[in-house]
Amino acid sequence: MTPLRITVNGREHVLPAPPETTLLALLREHLGLTGAKLGCDVGDCGACTVLVDGLAVNACLMLAAQADGRSVLTIEGLATPDALHPIQQAFERHAALQCGFCGPGVILSAKALLDANPAPTAAEIREALAGNLCRCTGYAKMITAVHAAAQALHGATDERSPRATPVPRLPLPGGGTGGPR
Amino acid sequence: MSDRRPVTEQEALRESLRGLETARLPATVPPAQFPIETLVPEVRQQTPAVGQRATRPDARLHGLGQTKYIDDLALPGMLHARIKRAGIAAARIARIDTRAAEAMPGVMAVLTGREIPANSFGPSLQDQPVLADERVRHAGDGVAAVAAVTEEIAAQAVERIVVEYEPLPAVFDPFEAMREDAPRVHPPAGNVYAHKIIRKGDVERALAEADRVFEGRWTTQMVEHVPIEPHAAIAAWDANGRLTVYSTLGRITLGRADIARTLALPVNRVQVVGTIVGGNFGGKNEISQEPVLALLAKKAGRPVKGVFTRGEEFYASTTRHPFFMDYSTGVGRDGRIRARKVRLVLDGGAYCSWSETTLGKACILATGPYKIEHVQVEAFAVYTNKTVAGAMRGFGAPQVCFAYESQMDEIAAALAIDPLEIRLANAFDEGAASPTGQTLESVVVKASLEQAAARFGWREPRS
Predict the structure, then answer these.
(1) Architecture of B176-223+319-455 per CATH?
(2) Which residues from A are below 8 Å from B66, CB to CB?
(3) What is the DSSP secondary structure assignment for residue B354, as one 8-state letter?
(4) Helix axis angle, A103-116 relative to A86-93, nearest 10°?
(5) Which of B170, B193, B192, B194 is nearest to B183 (CA)?
(6) B446, B429 in Cβ contact below 8 A?
């Protein structure tokens, strides 16, 4: 078993993991980072969303080995010890988290979007969150929160933005079985 | 961390309040990774609620990913459980062979229904086995369970359990199930397990005398709650033979009594710990796998966790009842409803669950928020060999609302009356009586309709 070398939340880990280990299992069971959730185990619900090299992936569909040499950001790595990330702040303020189970995944999908597109339209936000299911709040408050976060991060959102920047997709070895969205 | 912490609680309180917009109590223990202050509920504090913005006190840890749901917890030495599902709608269980599963390395305990001290539960009728022992009544019935050192081993072991079934005739349609000659889901009892009738006035005469009578059938489908967090629980015994169950249960007191009953334990030997639940919607209102995990934990001598697969969420948890709703409504030329006769058939699936509550609430609400002098509502909950129907948001209220409001629109269209006006003409006033004779107070149906209509411009000219 060749150990994997994965950077998680800015910290490098060298971990021996059985080949069938998913990235989600690696994070939750080997590293104790339980913020990413197992919701459906088939890449439909998005509760397991983490960022791999800045792009949103379903960690339940990605093998840990596919993240070898890459950098992973989980919800636990988003805030600093002193402050919430503006997206977390906006989700709290705009009541976009109810039971909270889908929250970490939604917030990270929003981060991937805002990193690529600082001033997204509502349609672009919807598209970016399309892979994250929520059964409590509905999505309106989340969209409001992402708008507010964009404002806080970059000073402006533009509803009439002519740029429709697509969210870049994560290229994976072997043709993208890691569920990039 | 310790040098940051003020000496006494009062000092901590004072310090935490300094410079804050709203007075909030300090977190007793900040999360290890995040000294960011957590929010806590404002208790015993009178706040003007209406029209105020409120922040959920639990939102901060949700957003930080620090909230611990059941599947985020692990106890030392904990095993993982899987339940074998029948996969057949109706059958007699002839034999269960668990030897191959028991022989697998990593398998620490195997359980069948016959080992359960009191193998039945349910919030009103105790008609559901924890694990089916003699008879399978729907494909999602559990028939055996395994606890193993990993989930993968537990899943493989479940595949190696051999169950011999003698298939029985099954019934899937509630109207067929109501016939005398239909296969019985719980023999010798008939398939109608709950019945209710509400009568007010003389509905037959009023229908006969009405200017127009509108008839229609509306049906709704089975709906799964699909909480993003699947059902999950952990069972652990202490050295004194007391059981602690951590569970996604929404009704922990009821669950505690049910767990104690199935295990034949005094209720004071069972502790149920409810945590933050990742979505309930009525689907986590009764026990499911908890007694199974408790008995596996007892056999293995180690804590046992069970998490439903997404598949089990659909076929082994409860759902919203499919309703079949027949409405006959007698109306005057002026659009006033004189009489309404309703017949409801609820497809309850294999077990009662919360059907009686659903049936009762649906009956009371079936005629809508309208003043109707002559009313008859009759409803039946019926067993079929299908996934269990139970509680889901509204307990039957959304189904009947769909029917009576759809019919209101049909009546309005047929009489060329504005859909808003026909509702205003019939809606409850202050002090109106419900079909069951309850005097209603604080009635704002008309005001709400008017306000909504004004907000979305109902009366403005439509192009």
Answers:
(1) 2-Layer Sandwich (3.30)
(2) 35, 76
(3) T
(4) 130
(5) B170
(6) yes
| Average pLDDT of span B419-434 | 97
A82/B228 touch (CB, cutoff 8 Å), yes or no: no
Q: Average of pLDDT values for B150-163?
A: 97
Sign of the Cα torsion B414, B415, B417, B420 reads negative
**What is the average pLDDT across B416-425?**
97
**Residue B343 β-bridge partners:** B326, B378
Q: What is the DSSP letter of B231?
A: P
- Backbone phi, psi, residue B382, to 5°: -125, 135
Show me where the domains of chain B are located: 1-67, 176-223+319-455
Domain annotation for chain A: domains and CATH numbers? 4-77 (3.10.20.30), 86-154 (1.10.150.120)
Tell me what pLDDT residue B55 has. 80
Measured distance CA(B370)–CA(B248) in Å, rounded:
39
Q: What are the tens digits of pLDDT across the range A116-169?
A: 999 999 999 999 999 999 999 789 999 999 999 999 998 754 544 434 444 444
Distance from CA of A77 to the nearest CA of B (A): 9
Tell me: the pLDDT tens digits for B331-342? 999 999 999 999
What mean pLDDT is predicted for residues B206-222? 98
Query: With bands split at pLDDT 50, 70 and 90, how would you rate the model's confidence at B34?
Result: low
Residues of chain A contacting B229 with CB distance shorter than 8 Å: 37, 39, 99, 101
Residues of A within 8 A of B71 (CB-CB) are: 34, 37-38
Maximal CA-CA distance, chain A:
52
Q: B65 vs A40: CB contact, 8 Å cut-off?
A: no
Burial (Cβ within 10 Å: 0-12, 13-18, ≥19) of residue A136:
middle
Chain A residues within 8 A (CB-CB) of chain B? Answer: 20, 28, 33-42, 45, 47, 74-76, 78-79, 81-84, 88, 91-93, 95, 97-104, 107, 133-136
Let me know if B450 is exposed, middle or buried by CB neighbors in 10 A (0-12, 13-18, 19+): middle
- What are the φ and ψ backbone dihedral angles of B340, each rounded to 5 degrees? -145, 125
Which residues in B lie closer than 8 A to residue A27 (C-beta atoms)?
Answer: none
